Amino acid sequence: MRLEEYWGVGPKTREALVEELGRERAIRAIESGDVRTLSDAGLPRGRATRILRRATGDGGMETLATSDARAAYKELLDLAVEHAVTRRAADRIRVLTPLTEREAMEDRLDDVLAARDAWSDLSEPDRTTVLEAYDRYDERDESEHAAVETAIALLDAGVDTGPFAAIADLERDRLERAATALAALDDGRGRVREGADDELDRLRDALGAVEDMDANALELIEELRSDGVRDVGQFREAFEDRLLSETAVTVDQVRDAMPTDAADATDFVGGTLRGLRSDLTAAVDEREETVARDLEETLEESSDTVDRAVEAVDAAALHLSLARFALSYDCTRPTFVEGDSAVVSVVGARNLTLVARESESVQAITYALGDHELAADGSSEVEADDGGLEVEIPGDERVAVLTGANSGGKTTLLETLCQVVLLASMGLPVPAERAAVTPVDSLVFHRRHASFNAGVLESTLRSIVPPLSSGGRTLMLVDEFEAITEPGSAADLLHGLVTLSVDRDALGVFVTHLADDLEPLPPEARVDGIFAEGLNPDLELLVDYQPRFDTVGRSTPEFIVSRLVANATDRSERVGFETLAEAVGNDVVQRTLADARWSE
Q1: Degrees (nearest 5) of the Cα angle 161, 78, 153?
Q2: Residues 6+ positions from 36 with CB-CB distance below 8 Å
Q3: Interacting residues of 491 by C-beta distance below 8 A, sequence separation 6+
Q4: How far apart are CA 97 and CA 100, in angstroms?
Q5: pTM of the prediction?
Q6: For residue 548, what are the β-bridge partners?
Q7: CA 325, 331, 333: angle at the middle one, nearest 5?
Q8: Which residues have a Cβ under 8 Å from the Cβ of 287 and sit 6 or more positions away?
Q9: Does residue 418 carry a pLDDT above 90?
Q10: Which domains does the chain have, with CATH numbers?
């Protein structure tokens, strides 16, 4: 395959990758989702990640039909990356994409949930052991040797279920022999490290000592003469004794190296040392070759075990990272619904962005679109699994118009549904007590963008309408469409979008303040509402974020005006806000403030 056939790889990128990695290694890095190799080759990490998402995502990125959908997807990955146990696991999380086959979604869910259960069952000391093993793996750049050592450490920890099952199946004896061989060889370049072989170490020490002595030969000769050596015989014996005491050479090696035709002491010492250096260098090379050959044979015998260890350690790191993410946010397995009727339904769903950002509790939401089974027993209310309050059951309409108070959580509900569908499509647990999802072909998520610019309106319509016309299953999550054009036209266009969504059998939630202007809606659509309930003693808006179905929500401006009146900093400012209070109903404002004080 040509490198240019991968999305995002043009001629300049190809040349850079080939120059740094070579064609085959570059292709392997792309196919395996290796962000680090590509970034080390000079590609910006963000660009490398985008290339790999397209290369390994099997078309799943096409599900994200709008820039806001892609932004929500990246936000989820960022939250998951925070729980990664290695840098490579973090990189692999960053290139996860929505999957296109239900079987693949189920398989990944099986792996992640098995990892979650295994991690939950571990004691705190065992968890610490596992994380420390992965920390060492990370520090050593996730080499083959590091992977084998990590596998041994995990075996020592006794973890053998879930993501660790493949590691538990490895042969410990082969792992230990491979670890010894990998530790002895210098990155597979044929060089044997110090400590791997006693005889090789002895020869190397001897060679080093002889080289040092040769570098200071003249000083050595002067030292021997200053010790009272006078004739040739005494000099020869003193030199021999010095060699035997200060180097690891043998008597035979010394005598074999001594020249028989030396003209003087300098010639004799220099000739002996040169001979010893030559002999020892040859001996070191021969011994190193023998040791390296034996080590490489050991690695060849253990190559399958090493490959399995690398794969198992990396796979466990990925699934363990995703399991820690799922546990941190109390995520559960979604149910995938197939058939002619699409559905998205959640019980006790929480917005991950809020959970991650806020210290206070986040209100869980029950919501549904399509032919759901939230209350299969026919009851009119559903109770959360944790014994929470019962919530009215929504109808089976495929499209909803969501209304209600400003700051009432309408946008948050859209984001929550988007997060549930995205995580489910990636084969990951979702932040809900229960969820049923039909995988969609297009996810259209449009956040509120306040602008009356004609170009914004056109670009928005170009992004959200074509997915409805593609013929695939589409989920529309559109927030305050009226913010990008004047209210009259917005109501007409929004009514058209709702009608088009119904006609195309799409699922959708459209947030708006123009519900009254959309009547009559198609019978397949309903109106839901979120209600503000007053002010708390701190004059903060109290909102029940759980939507009420088939009910128009109200923006309750009297609550906002009440707060402004109470917080006015001087008399003139208060007079101005009291004028607004008369406009919205002074009695309502006063009752709101009284209720807030009474609840204190």
Answers
A1: 30
A2: 87, 88, 91
A3: 482, 514, 517, 518
A4: 9
A5: 0.81
A6: 529
A7: 120
A8: 197, 199, 200, 203
A9: yes
A10: 101-328 (no CATH), 335-554 (3.40.50.300), 556-600 (no CATH)
**Beta bridge mates, 507:** 475
Dig out the tokens for 574 from the structure.
């208060």
Q: Are the C-beta atoms of 376 and 527 separated by less than 8 Å?
A: no
Which residue matches tokens 């990356």? 81
Which of 276, 302, 284 is closest to 197 using CA atoms? 284
Residue with tokens 């990998």: 182
Cα–Cα distances in Å, from 176 out to 154, 183, 586? Answer: 13, 10, 82
Instruction: Give per-residue pLDDT as tens, 22-75.
Output: 888 888 888 878 888 888 888 888 888 888 888 776 678 889 999 999 999 999
Other CB atoms closer than 10 Å to residue 237's CB: what's the count?
12
Strand 507-511 to 474-479 pairing: parallel
Q: Which amino acid is at 469?
A: S
Q: Which one has a higher pLDDT value, 564 or 230?
A: 564
Q: Give the pLDDT confidence of 332-351 residue by residue, as tens digits.
A: 999 999 877 789 999 999 99
Query: Could you say which DSSP state residue 99 is in?
Result: -
Reading the block at residue 436, the tokens are 């049923």
* Diameter over CA atoms, the chain: 125
Do residues 109 and 429 lie in contact, with contact meaning Cβ atoms separated by under 8 Å? Answer: yes
Q: Whole-angstrom Cα distance, residue 390 to residue 368?
A: 15
